[in-house]
Specification:
Cytochrome Bc1 Complex, Chain D, domain 2; 7 helices; binds heme D; globular; Cytochrome c, mono-and diheme variants; Methylamine Dehydrogenase, Chain H; signal; four-stranded antiparallel β-sheet; Host-pathogen_enzymatic-act; mainly beta; iron; five-stranded antiparallel β-sheet; 35 strands
Length: 504
């Protein structure tokens, strides 16, 4: 089946009717010139349809996070450490401004990213099983490796978590987003990019083994607990796509629609190990889906919600989905067995539940979540679903982290004037016990512990940034490793064991 999508037909109609009147005809000619300029100067790397190629996709949805002025600067000056050269000596100011406008316009014709395009995009460098099984580097503990995503120049660093030293650094696809997902043995890892690329990487051989483009604008990926399947969740087109984890061959293509045929973006998809399933929530239709794989085909079980779901999270047994409502003012708890909403959570301030963590507190399990729009962390009893404490922070946060063996949880202040601060919370007193400001003026964010919970890494989120190694107990800084805008860090052991203090 081919899934076709129409990009803003209205805009295309406006452009067509523009050709009818004088001044607008000039505008239309101008657009044709710019289109031709794009084909001459940009299409070789970014694709004639702006869907991307060696360079990223240049469509409004994919550029949503880049300010127009920054895009213009990139066209003018180029992007360091990439193939993107500056055009200031080739194009004049008006041409650069026109090209910038052009890439932020929706395309005038339909774009397709269906089964054929996905199959055709697949690149297999090393068929599964063709590379040696012994690592090409020496470390004491393969389970204590970290991957660090450096979004500044689109690279990934492999780090020895015992010595806290980099082992290897390699280029990634443009704009990786979300956690890379490890297979259950910790040898293979799967990265997802915002442009829809899935990259399978063999950590032992330091090689990309296969890649496939699952969509035009992807949300995230999940790997099944048995390591057999990869599922991709897309914003554009409205699809979920199932792959064989060995060679990234597409197995199933699932248009995301309700019974009435309305389609929806997918908020995210996660694997639910005890259920042997994937769970996805839809952004534009009030439903969550449980997806199981039978005979390499996806079987969807729909669970209706009374609200649109954005970000979400699970209890450790995967009995409940805890979801943030898209209105940003509350959350819901859905039983994954019955599909019923069993509780409402009073969480004003847009909780970032994807960053939620849990721990044992006075004999019961609690969860904590930061908020995007409030300087607060909510701590919730997971039996009664009551908010037992709201901690006031120095500003809205993005990520939270802890480890079963650590007494502390770490929460960044990602937005506002205090974005260079990080709070440390005592998990037994539920109080902030220390606030660090490791590099005044630079965002400090996202923590990941080593497998033992003894050390942790914090990012200085800057092109001229670093990861800082802390002792998890004394909270003392041990060393800094320079990096180019390091974002997430991912410890092999913590991820494959679904450690309670880290994201899944
Ligand atoms: Fe993320 C994870 C959604 C903006 C960095 N982010 C995720 C996940 C989702 C999500 C659904 C979980 C995926 C997974 O790990 O499988 N992120 C969103 C948004 O909706 C939002 C707010 C807007 C958007 O543009 O998509 C958003 N995210 C950002 C950023 O601006 C960040 C800070 C920088 C960036 O790279 O874009 C950012 N998101 C991250 C990171 C993770 C992430 C580092 C993985 C966290 C982890 O520890 O697992």
């Amino acid at each position: 089946m081919t899934f076709r999508l129409s990009f803003h037909k209205l805009a295309a109609t406006v452009l067509a009717s523009a050709a009818l009147s004088g001044p607008l005809m000039a505008q239309d000619n101008n657009q044709n010139d710019t289109h031709n300029l794009y084909l001459q100067q940009c299409a070789a790397c970014h694709g004639p349809d702006r869907l991307g190629g060696m360079g990223p996709a240049l469509l409004p949805e994919n550029l949503g996070r880049l300010k127009k002025s920054e895009a213009e600067k990139v066209i003018r000056e180029g992007r360091p450490a990439t193939q993107m050269l500056g055009y200031e000596n080739t194009l004049n100011d008006q041409q650069i401004a026109n090209l910038t406008d052009y890439i932020y316009q929706p395309p005038s014709h339909e774009l397709t990213w269906g089964e054929r395009e996905i199959r055709d995009s697949r690149i297999v460098n090393h068929p599964h099983g063709s590379l040696p099984d012994e690592p090409v580097f020496e470390v004491d503990d393969l389970m204590n490796l970290f991957l660090v995503v450096e979004i500044g120049d689109h690279h990934v660093t492999l780090l020895d978590g015992d010595k806290m030293e980099p082992i290897h650094r390699f280029p990634s696809r443009f704009a990786l987003h979300g956690g890379p997902k490890y297979g259950p043995e910790g040898r293979y890892v799967y990265f997802g990019s915002r442009d829809g690329w899935i990259t399978k990487y063999d950590i032992y051989n330091l090689e990309v083994v296969a890649e496939v483009r699952a969509g035009i604008n992807m949300r995230n990926i999940a790997v099944s607990a048995d390591g057999q399947y990869v599922m991709a969740a897309n914003y554009l087109p409205h699809t979920l796509v199932l792959f064989d984890a060995d060679n990234l061959e597409m197995l199933d293509f699932i248009p995301v629609e309700n019974d009435a045929g309305d389609s929806s973006r997918v908020s995210a998809v996660y694997t639910a190990p005890p259920r042997d399933s994937f769970i996805a929530a839809l952004k534009d239709i009030p439903e969550a889906w449980e997806i199981t794989v039978e005979d390499e085909q996806a079987r969807v079980r729909r669970m209706k919600s009374d609200t649109l779901l954005d970000d979400f999270f699970f209890d450790p047994g995967y009995d409940h989905l805890i979801g943030a409502a898209r209105d940003g003012k509350h959350g819901i708890v859905m039983s994954l067995d019955s599909g019923e909403t069993v509780a409402e959570l009073p969480l004003p301030g847009m909780p970032h539940l994807g960053s939620g963590i849990t721990w044992e507190y006075e004999g019961r399990r609690v969860m904590a979540t930061p908020h995007f729009r409030a300087g607060a962390i909510s701590i919730i009893d997971m039996d009664t679903w009551e908010v037992i404490k709201t901690l006031k922070t120095d500003g809205p946060g993005f990520f939270m982290r802890s480890h079963e063996n650590s007494r502390y949880a770490w929460a960044d202040v990602f937005f506002g004037p205090n974005a260079d601060k990080v709070h440390i919370i005592d998990k037994q007193t539920l109080e902030i016990v220390k606030t660090l400001q490791p590099e005044p003026g630079k965002v400090a964010a996202h923590v990941e512990f080593d497998r033992h919970g003894e050390k942790l890494l914090l990012s200085i989120w800057d092109d001229d940034g670093a990861i800082i190694v802390y002792d998890a107990d004394t909270l003392e800084e041990e060393k800094r490793i320079p990096m180019n805008k390091p974002s997430g860090k991912y410890n092999v052991w913590n991820k494959i064991n679904y450690e309670e203090g880290t994201s899944h």
